[in-house]
Design goal:
By secondary structure, this protein is α/β, with parallel strands linked by helices. It has helices at about 50-60, 75-80, 115-130, 150-160, 175-185, 200-210, and strands at about 5-15, 20-25, 35-40, 65-70, 135-140, 145, 165, 190-195. It has a single domain (about 5-210), classed as Aminopeptidase (3-Layer(aba) Sandwich). Helix 1 (about 50-60) packs across helix 6 (about 200-210) and helix 4 crosses helix 6 (about 200-210).
Length: about 210
Amino acid sequence: MNKTISYNVLEEVKSAEGNIISLCALLSNKDLNKNKTLIIGVIHGDEPQGELLINKYMEEHENKNLLFIPCLNPDGRNKGTRTNSNNVDINRNFPTNNWERTEYGNYYGGAQPTSEIETKFLVNIIEKYKPLAIITLHTPYKIVNYDGPAQELAGMISDIIGYPVEPSIGYPTPGSFGTYAGVERSIPTITLELDEYASIESLYEPIEEIFDNL
C-alpha cells in the first residue's frame, strides 16, 4: 500500500508559463512560528536534484515543522535552463543593496530587482512566514556555502554530508538570495551545493539526516 502523502500546500502561484509554484508544509502539531526552516529546490532550472529530494522527503515523513518550495523555477526546469522563462537568473534578481543590471546571459539579473514572479513569491513567503533558517539546494560544487549567522548550521550540514564549509562561493553574486536573506536580513541561509553526478538515492540519505536534524 502506498503511503498517504501528508503535506499541506499553503501557498501557490502560477509562473509566466502557467506552471504551479507551491509552498508546502508537513503536517505538524507544532506552531509554525517555532523552529521552522524553509527549504528550496530548483532556483536554477538545470539543477533538478533539489525537487526530487524534497518530494521524496515529504512523501516519507510527517510531523516535521519544515516549509518546502520543491521547485521555485518550473519553467526553467521544463526547459533545462538555468534561467526562467524570461531568461532571468532568479538568483540575481533579489532586491539587494548590491543588485546591478548585468549583461544578458545565464547570469542576467533582470531589468530591475524583483521583476520576476518567482522572486516575488519567495520574498512574500519570507515576509509572511518568517523562517528562522533557510536552505537552498543547488549543484554542482560539493560545498556548504553560508550567508548571515549560519556558521553553526553549516557545520552540522558539513558533518553529515562531508562537504567543506565555504563562506564564499568564490565569485561575485549581485542580487543573490544569500545576500538578500542571509547578509541583509540576518536569516541563517545555507546554499548547499550537491554533487551533480551523484544519484538521487545516494544523496537522499545525507539529505534525510540533515532535514531530520533541523
